[in-house]
């Protein structure tokens, strides 16, 4: 027989169990929803600049707040202002960063004072600028034009300079807040096509830990040139979120730059295939670290390693000149494998029907030397073929 207090306890227990199940189911549904809905994340620039610390600044670097010469301190990788270590908060309040999104249909030059590159010329009067031994003159964070303080026009629309076809102008981007209280973040809600001929914007996907941390340097450099919403760090979010740009602007041909090795490129190509896009992006490779067979075969080079300077401008120029090629991808499944003694093969050829295009097998690129043959250059792959 159950007494009254015991009944109350059972009821409470049932209610609690019911609530736990409801919360659990809700979280499962929310996670499933999040996995099926990808969104392009955007920085909240009202929080201030995107800082990184520099141990040694180049000679003649001046603080944008104290205006004094500094040897080390913090630099914003988006608008490139430099400040003394202890002046970051003040800079966040006083100097606006390069915007991700803007209201209206025009983006004006975003002038940043001082620290101009060597041999800068004023685009208005064509004379040298930035040469005084103190913080002086300005540079646009978008088009990179430099000008004398007195020459710079205040309300001139920025045309985004040499790499205008790669940049998503902030006036074409509309943001919205998503997520629950405490975990709210900004994402791109809508985007429109700017009036730029041959516009083919670039999306960068890189893992900040790729190579020997070259990934981090590259992500920073691309954010300095592009709209920061175009740069996706695979360390924090999957490539699907970056490729979501292709859904936001389905009629635009995007260029997706994958920074990393064969594994990363294979992963991103699988994602593009899985998403079944109406207008899939062209894929460019920026090889990092070792294991860059696909990049080498396609002509993007052997790979950047520690100490190599990555010249983002040069990469954009190479992308503008690159010709798209098709890539065959296929997966080999091996079943009922018998253990066999293998000869020490250096290479092996197999015959295939098909055109003369580079090939990729389950993430690994194979060099093709003849329309009907594949040359396998590595022992591991030779072994795999010999077993077949
Ligand atoms: Zn900034
Ligand atoms: Zn400009
Ligand atoms: Zn001038």
From TrEMBL:
SUPFAM superfamilies given for it? Cysteine-rich domain, NAD kinase/diacylglycerol kinase-like
Residues of the Phorbol-ester/DAG-type domain: 108-158
Presence of the UniProt keyword Glycoprotein in the record? no
Annotated DAGKc domain residues: 197-336
Q: Which UniProt keywords apply?
A: Membrane, Metal-binding, Transmembrane, Transmembrane helix, Zinc
Looking up InterPro entries in the UniProt record yields: ATP-NAD_kinase_N (IPR017438), C1-like_sf (IPR046349), DGK (IPR037607), Diacylglycerol_kinase_cat_dom (IPR001206), NAD/diacylglycerol_kinase_sf (IPR016064), PKC_DAG/PE (IPR002219)
Which residue windows are transmembrane per the record?
A: 6-27
Q: Which PANTHER family match?
A: DIACYLGLYCEROL KINASE, DIACYLGLYCEROL KINASE EPSILON
Under which name does UniProt file this protein?
Diacylglycerol kinase (ATP)
